[in-house]
Amino acid sequence: MTHVERQWIATGEQQRVDPDMLVDRLPDYDPRTGDHLWMIVTSYRVVPEQWQDRTHTPMLDRENLLSITVPCCYYCEQAWTKRLASRRCPGEPR
Ligand SMILES: [Zn+2]
């Protein structure tokens, strides 16, 4: 376990998941502001059969956490740096 990983899982946060729930709150890129959308992508190991079982409550927590990325922009797909953050987001990967 790395120092960075310990920081993230030490929060004790758990995410309950409804099998029918899809979360898509990604706002469209706004060329007027040129704001980046900084995000961290996490991935979890899942058992699809349990995901569909209504008697089972799928959890996204430390037991099935697989990876956490560095902060990156959803629109331009670049990893965060101070320099990039000070510039307008081009909105598309270059
Ligand atoms: Zn960007």
Describe the structure.
- This protein has 94 residues and is an alpha+beta fold.
- Helices cover 17% and strands 16% of the residues.
- Strands 1-4 form a two-stranded antiparallel sheet. Strands 2-6 form a two-stranded antiparallel ribbon. It has a two-stranded antiparallel sheet with strand order 3-5.
- The longest helix has 7 residues.
- Zinc ion binds next to loops.
Topology:
Layout: H1 3-9, E1 15-16, E2 38-39, E3 42-44, H2 48-52, E4 59-60, E5 65-68, E6 72-73, H3 82-85
Antiparallel strand pairs: 1-4, 2-6, 3-5
The structure holds zinc ion (ZN).
Secondary-structure content class: alpha+beta
- Ligands bound here? zinc ion
**Strand line-up of the largest beta sheet:** 1-4
Instruction: Give unreliable regions as ranges.
Output: 3-10
Structurally, how many domains make up the residues?
1
Question: What value does the average pLDDT take?
Answer: 82
Q: Report the helical percentage.
A: 10-25%
Radius of gyration: 17 Å
3D shape: elongated
Tally of contiguous helical segments: 3
Task: Spell out the helices and strands N to C.
Answer: HEEEHEEEH
Total count of strands: 6
End-to-end separation in angstroms reads 34 Å
**β-sheet strand percentage:** 15-25%
Largest beta-sheet characterization: 2 strands, antiparallel
